[in-house]
Every structure is written in C-alpha cells, then in structure tokens.
Structure to design on (165 residues):
C-alpha cells in the first residue's frame, strides 16, 4: 500500500476505539474486560524508547499524550476482543482520533500481536518496513501505547501505538 494511503488508513483506525476505554496507569495492574485484560504500559518508558530510536535517526523526541493512550488502548482492546489484528476492527483512525479531539494533523498507528513486552513489540515494529516508517515519520510529536491480553486467542497479547504531530 502506498505510504500516503497507509498513513490515512492508520489515522482513521484510532479515533473510534478511543471512546471505548480509559487510560491505564502502570501501578493499577491488569484490569479485566470480559475475556480480555487491559495490560498496563508505562507511557513514560514508551516515550523514552521511541524518542531514543527517533533521535538515532536525527528526529525529534515524542511526548506522552493521555488521549492518544486511550485511543491506543481502545484499539488494543477491540483487537483482543475480536481476536483480530486489524487497523479497522473498530473504525478508522481519523474517526477514533476525533473522539478525543485529535482529528487534525498527521497521525500514524502501529498494531501488532503476540509480543510479551513493550520492548519486544517495539523491536518487531522496527524490523517491519511499514511500521518502522511510522516510528521515524518526522512530523510525529506525541505518543500513546497500549496492550490488551486475550488468553484464549492465538496471539494472547495485542499492541497498539498511536502517534500524532
């Protein structure tokens, strides 16, 4: 898929899912959601890891954004509930971003499944050309990352990363 088309598709995916969930703080521990569980992700750690990687490529760092974390959590939850790795399982990213007032500007989303940790998910995204392109997309300034566990599914853990300018 062309980069512009992929970015548009990625932008659409996060907004709708954002309204389905609230933020998760690392100290809260897992929170049950039916057959899925919200897995706490340290947003500060995610920001540091992604920022370090971006600086290695001559780019600016990214800061945490609570609304983007909620958008990402809703996406991770929806994928886990549907047992489906998808950018559109709960709607387009632009629509989901709009739910949290983040509808203007550039946005990207990475999703994945099966990784046991944030560092593993980030390593997987760095190895994938389209996902890596999102990580090093120059306009990005804010980030939200989330994970959801669905033990009865093929992948067990679903991840979503959302970045905007």
């Amino acid at each position: 898929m062309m980069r512009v088309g992929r970015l548009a598709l990625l932008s659409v995916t996060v907004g709708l899912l954002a309204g389905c969930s609230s933020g998760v703080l690392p100290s809260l521990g897992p929170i049950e959601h039916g057959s899925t569980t919200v897995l706490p992700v340290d947003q500060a750690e995610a920001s540091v890891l992604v920022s370090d990687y971006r600086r290695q490529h001559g780019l600016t760092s990214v800061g945490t954004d609570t609304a983007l974390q909620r958008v990402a959590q809703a996406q991770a939850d929806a994928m886990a509930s549907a047992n489906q790795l998808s950018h559109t399982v709960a709607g387009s990213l632009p629509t989901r971003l709009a739910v949290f007032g983040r509808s203007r500007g550039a946005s990207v989303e990475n999703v994945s499944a099966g990784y046991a940790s944030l560092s593993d998910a980030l390593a997987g995204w760095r190895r994938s050309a389209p996902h890596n392109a999102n990580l090093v997309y120059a306009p990005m300034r804010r980030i939200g990352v989330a994970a959801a566990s669905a033990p009865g599914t093929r992948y067990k853990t679903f991840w979503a990363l959302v970045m905007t300018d």
Observations:
- The two ends are 22 Å apart (CA to CA).
- Strands lie at 31-33, 36-39, 63-64, 107-113, 142-149, 157-164.
- Confidence is low (pLDDT under 50) at residues 1-32.
- The helical segments are 3-18, 43-56, 66-82, 93-99, 118-127, 129-135.
